[in-house]
């Protein structure tokens, strides 16, 4: 017996609903990739959304790519979709994508409305213009030079100017592939060359790393450790290799620029591998009370955190950073347990971000990320790999590289511990966009 008209209409409507739900999952996946969602959380988060939509699906995620397999239990068949998106950080739009998913799971919006909202969100421009981001590069490099690399006012000013040059290259690299391929090589050469030419008047080591702060692979290394520890081996290995190669490229560019500058000054025999900032005469630590919040605002603009979230990001970052100095003082001079300082600092930072998320219902990741940029040891890694490239200090370089890995592990432990204490059973309606 052939189906009636009503039965055929009902079947067509059911198939249309299934296809619409699958379309939403693909749109959500693309948005999470493009806006910077933690990859090691995406598979479980997408499974939760698919389970709510009653869709038989499985997901395999690597940075920039997700394979989605939709199954049909009635016909015992399946189809696989490849969702690709460029990786980036846009915390404001990531929060909006998370809110769209949350409204759907609470029944406050339909699947059709959610797809429309996701498409509008993907087409929306960034909340900060490109020229503001270049100005922010000056702010970041200026203050980071004084707080992390013991620079004085002269080194900070030069770092800020060079940071703007790096920012121009980074924005051009996002639009032109040929420039993007050389992004981790050409700017470090230029920065190190200028710093080397001025090395008789400034402390060289306080400039290159501060000027290239947005290129440093510390965040990638920290995420690699998080993903490896959460048994996401493929994602962690990919990020670890990528961050390692980025460290080598930046280190190589820094040494080449340094050697060129020394050759132009007639000082070819100068040691190119030593990037220690121990001899720099930095500013008083009292200035850090002002510089740390300003640096955090700069990172917030770079990661496109909405201005209404800046007080929370500044408070979280300042809490984590000030805890570093307190714990270093206690653990170094009294307990002699220096490695625990990073764990405690990341734990404080994670607790502030997660508690803020718990009471406001907003994404903790946008609060966590700017502050985490102070904790990740990207600069240690670059200094380590720069020393490896110098044959005279290879042992020191390997030691610094090992220190970089152990610091990442300390950050991982602190963040996981804070997330577990605040959300021992996980979140109910939104993704765990914390670590």
The dominant shape is elongated
The tally of helices reads 17
Uncertain runs are: 391-397, 428-435
DSSP strand tally: 3
Subcellular location: Membrane
Membrane topology: Multi-pass membrane protein
GO cellular component, one term: membrane
Main location: membrane
Topology:
Blueprint: H1 5-35, H2 39-52, E1 57-62, E2 65-72, E3 77-84, H3 91-105, H4 111-123, H5 130-147, H6 153-175, H7 177-181, H8 186-197, H9 208-211, H10 218-229, H11 233-264, H12 288-302, H13 310-335, H14 340-360, H15 365-375, H16 378-389, H17 394-422
Helix pairs in contact: 1-2, 1-3, 1-4, 3-4, 5-6, 5-12, 6-8, 8-11, 10-11, 10-17, 11-16, 12-13, 12-15, 13-14, 13-15, 14-15, 14-17, 16-17
Structural description of this entry:
GO terms for molecular function: transmembrane transporter activity. Belongs to the ThrE exporter (TC 2.A.79) family. It comes from Coemansia reversa (strain ATCC 12441 / NRRL 1564). Its main location: membrane. The chain has helices at about 5-35, 40-50, 90-105, 110-125, 130-145, 155-175, 175-180, 185-195, 210, 220-230, 235-265, 290-300, 310-335, 340-360, 365-375, 380-390, 395-420; strands at about 55-60, 65-70, 75-85. It has a three-stranded antiparallel β-sheet with strand order 1-2-3. It has two domains: about 5-125, no CATH class; about 130-420, no CATH class. The protein starts with a helix and ends in a 13-residue tail after the last helix. By secondary structure, it is mostly helical. Residues about 390-395 and about 430-435 have low confidence and may be disordered.
